[in-house]
């Protein structure tokens, strides 16, 4: 066994994100996770392992980092519910995931939220939906909602639809890339009953688009469920235009619409993954010259002070410097200005 277990146990003792990765995921890597090469911060060089294996770099608290970088707690009317955008409600149905991604922006919230949503909480979500007619869409999120048994998910979906027939459901999951076997016939026949429904996955590297992934995506699409993807820009994983070009064109060929490329959030313990925004902007410009409109995702960042999603480069006002270093001034649609640091 490598040093994964002792570090994972230390992280777990501190209430931090432990190690969890299906063998399917570890087998996508080019190196054995027990003996893989690592950089000077202990982060694996392999892009698959870098997303999965804990490293001592996670114990670093960088300035401006937060346990809750999107300030979801401030928009949480009830446990598990986040109502940040007026038309959308997000439900965190569990903090469990088959793969604990080291870069996850909820990395500091997940360990304490591993239980599945309870019957009482499902009824609370239903009640909230009834009381808020402005809601048009419910995001089923987590953790990974596909960690939750299909029967519990179906109960939730049925209650939501009872409250608001036709409400749009968005299922946000990494399972198609982290544990494709979870996409089984029982799940597909359940999902088929709850259209309009969209699957939004996260894919960060072309190695994630395995034969099994492609097969499962084909089944989801054949069930009449459109699939979109989000990608997080990650240092050492996908921060070069060739990798991103291959990833986005591969997703598009698989029938998955590239939706967002996210600049890294300021989640505590994730500074080693963040790519300077100037570099991200330059890569995005380069991608525009290489990818078709269908292959091209939108580049965006979540404002570190909870002001929501800002598009890049559209929201950029200027790059400035003060005693804390260089930062970018970004303008939100309501005209408010927000700082995002150039370096981690
Ligand atoms: S699967 Fe999603 S919620 Fe879970 S650790 Fe990865 S990014 Fe975070």
Automatic annotation (TrEMBL):
Q: Which cofactor does it need?
A: pyridoxal 5'-phosphate; [4Fe-4S] cluster
N6-(pyridoxal phosphate)lysine PTM positions read 309
User: Which PROSITE patterns does UniProt cross-reference here?
Assistant: RADICAL_SAM
Which organism does this record belong to? uncultured Spirochaetota bacterium
User: Which residues are [4Fe-4S] cluster-binding?
Assistant: 97, 101, 104
Protein name, per record: Lysine 2,3-aminomutase YodO family protein
One Pfam family, please name it: Radical_SAM
Q: How far does the signal peptide extend, from start to end residue? A: none
MF terms per GO, please?
4 iron, 4 sulfur cluster binding; L-lysine 2,3-aminomutase activity; metal ion binding
Family in the record: Belongs to the radical SAM superfamily. KamA family.
